[in-house]
Amino acid sequence: MDDISQLFIQDHRRCDEMFVAMEQAFSQGEWSRAEKTLDGFIHAMEHHFNVEEERLFPVLEQASCQANGPIRVMMMEHVQMRHLFKTLCTAMQQRSKETILGITDTLLVTMQQHNMKEENILYPLADRFVAELGEEIALGITGSG
User: Fold this and answer.
1) Whether the Cβ atoms of residue 23 and residue 39 lie closer than 8 Å to each other
2) 79-89 burial: b if 16+ Cβ within 10 Å, else e
3) Where are the domains of the chain?
């Protein structure tokens, strides 16, 4: 069984790959593919956020007061990224390639910084304080639970 860090890091990489495919479709002006990859990317990110917010964060917050600050920061960043998703969808409807690429640049930097904080701070806390929940968390990430 993988630890919590490994599970979430693997999911980060999966979402990153979806982001790259989406950005390529936008760059090439392939609007049909761009729309499909955008929908898939947002769905994957929302699923990832929901597993964190509904399964990981509440138990981690109860297990360790050290996690409270990082969890608040992650929640704020989830809100920021969700706003970027909505902005990206609007730009997609308008077929505004320049606007889309600007938003994806901002989103990429935001995601990279967010993931680094989770992978270096929050997930190690989870491995330390709630490792026994790894299987339950894994079921949530894979969509089997």
Assistant:
1) no
2) eebeebbebbb
3) 4-130
Count Cα neighbours of 126 within 13 Å in the Cβ-side half-sphere. 30
Question: Tokens for 135?
Answer: 């299987």
Answer whether 50's CB lies under 8 Å from 42's CB: no
Give the span between the Cα atoms of 114 and 49, in whole angstroms: 12
User: pTM for this structure?
Assistant: 0.92
Q: List, in order, residues 6 or more apart from 8 with CB less than 8 Å away.
A: 48, 52, 56, 118, 119, 123, 137, 141
- Check if CATH label 3.40.50.11890 holds for domain 4-130: no
pLDDT tens, the chain, 145 aa long: 468 999 999 999 999 999 999 999 999 999 999 999 999 999 999 999 999 999 999 999 999 898 999 999 999 999 999 999 999 999 999 999 999 999 999 999 999 999 999 999 999 999 999 888 777 776 777 664 4
Using the structure block, give the residue that is written with the tokens 């399964």: 55
User: Is 19:114 a contact under the CB 8 Å cutoff?
Assistant: no
**Helix 4-27 × helix 97-117 angle, to 10°:** 170
